[in-house]
Each structure stands twice: as C-alpha cells, then as structure tokens.
C-alpha cells in the first residue's frame, strides 16, 4: 500500500523474468499490475500519477 501511495512501480514477477532473459532492464509499463485481488483497477498507475503531480 505504501508503495502505491509513494508512486512506486508495482510489477508482476514476469518483469523480473523478462529482465533476466534479456540480461538488462526492460520497460516496466508492460508489467505493471493493473488489477488487485479486490477488483480495484489501475491502483498502482493512479498512485504513480498522483505522486508525479505532487512534485
């Protein structure tokens, strides 16, 4: 929860697998979690946008 409030990327494990496969960091956008176990959509994205707009 704090990560979302602070605007951190919340990614699936597939991002780590893709980075390991390519042996470099890959774009986070394709791997951002878009829905949580409660059905809330775009929580991490919204949190990042709010954190960016505060600056």
Automatic annotation (TrEMBL):
Record bears the keyword Ubl conjugation: no
Keyword Ligase: no
InterPro entries tied to this protein: BRCA1-associated, BRCT_dom, BRCT_dom_sf
Species assigned in the record: Brassica campestris
Subcellular location: Nucleus
Protein name, entry field: BRCT domain-containing protein
Organism domain of life: Eukaryota
SUPFAM superfamilies attached to this UniProt entry: BRCT domain
Keyword set, alphabetical order: DNA damage, DNA repair, Nucleus, Repeat
Residues of the BRCT domain: 1-33
Native organism taxonomy: Eukaryota, Viridiplantae, Streptophyta, Embryophyta, Tracheophyta
GO terms for cellular component: nucleus
